[in-house]
Specification:
This is Gfo/Idh/MocA-like oxidoreductase C-terminal domain-containing protein. This protein has helices at residues 15-26, 55-58, 61-64, 67-77, 189-194, 200-213, 222-241, and strands spanning 32-40, 81-89, 109-116, 121-127, 135-142, 145-151, 155-160, 181-184, 244-248, 258-262, 274-275. Helix 4 crosses helix 7. It has one domain: Dihydrodipicolinate Reductase, domain 2 (2-Layer Sandwich). Strand 6 and strand 7 (155-160) form a beta hairpin. The chain has seven helices and eleven strands.
Length: 276
């Protein structure tokens, strides 16, 4: 190709998450049904001219921060989102900060549920004031068990269920239960010292260089980046309207993506349409 382009979605290359993706892609755990993501962490750090304190500059927390998680959902599930419902707000972060005459308006917590075209569902639990480190969990629930990636422990926990249907009146005895397999994913000290996310930046750049050298498509396309941002915009629209937001016009065309809030009760109706 005459040029090469790749969107920087480095969470795909965090070692425990990369292992989770491999497990799901392998099919050994059966069909994928749900993906749950949780990030509990510290508030946004200070950036150049405090641009990350205002929705008008970032598109909102669920765009600026959440796009990485929405990208993970699409990558793991391998389907397109069709509807999003979100609830969130600004509980305590940055309320005592003033820049010029403006106080930051970015949200600091949210719960998001995403429905996908193939029937799978995903959720995000984001809190930007929960603790002093960046604590993340990604959980994939499949037909025959679940795969869980944890960070910063860099651990993958795999459970292969022995029983699916609840046909007894009592829980399984301890000796009957599936024993989780816990895999520690080592991260070389040099990579850990070079940046955040357990060396993900190094692995991401290797993937980019490999694509360039071998003249093949990069792992994260412009469409992937666009969809991650669109999901964040839809989540904010859902918070604003209090309704589920349907994503319409999901295609690789450049004529835009429509976000249509829908719902019941006093907010029922076609609602406004936002176009990206």
């Amino acid at each position: 190709p005459p040029g090469i382009f790749m969107v920087g979605m480095e969470y795909r290359w965090m070692p425990p998450i990369s292992r989770l993706i491999e497990e799901v892609d392998s099919g050994r755990h059966g069909d994928l049904f749900t993906v749950s993501i949780r990030e509990h962490r510290f508030p946004f750090l200070v950036k150049v001219q405090n641009w990350n304190r205002f929705n008008k500059y970032t598109g909102g927390t669920l765009v600026e921060k959440g796009c990485h998680f929405f990208d993970l959902m699409r990558r793991i599930i391998r389907s397109e989102p069709v509807a999003i419902f979100a609830s969130g707000g600004q509980a305590q972060n940055h309320k005592d900060e003033v820049y010029g005459t403006e106080t930051p308006d970015i949200i600091d917590h949210a719960f998001i549920v995403v429905e996908f075209a193939n029937g799978a569902k995903a959720s995000l639990d984001l809190c930007m004031f929960a603790e002093d480190e960046q604590n993340e969990q990604v959980i994939a629930i499949c037909e025959r068990g679940k795969v869980e990636a944890r960070s910063p422990e860099s651990v993958v926990r795999i459970v292969e269920r022995r029983h699916v249907s609840g046909t007894t009146r009592e829980p399984l005895a301890p000796e009957q239960r599936a024993v989780p397999k816990v895999h520690e994913i080592p991260v070389p000290k040099e990579l850990a010292a070079a940046g955040y996310h357990e060396g993900a930046t190094y692995h991401e750049l290797r993937a980019f260089v490999d694509s360039a050298r071998n003249r093949r498509l990069t792992p994260v396309s412009a469409h992937d980046g666009t969809m991650a941002v669109a999901m964040g915009v839809a989540a904010h629209e859902s918070i604003r309207t209090g309704r589920k937001c349907r994503l319409e016009g999901l295609s690789r065309r450049s004529d835009g993506l429509q976000l249509n809030p829908t719902g019941d009760g006093p907010l029922a109706g076609d609602g406004p349409t936002a176009r990206l």
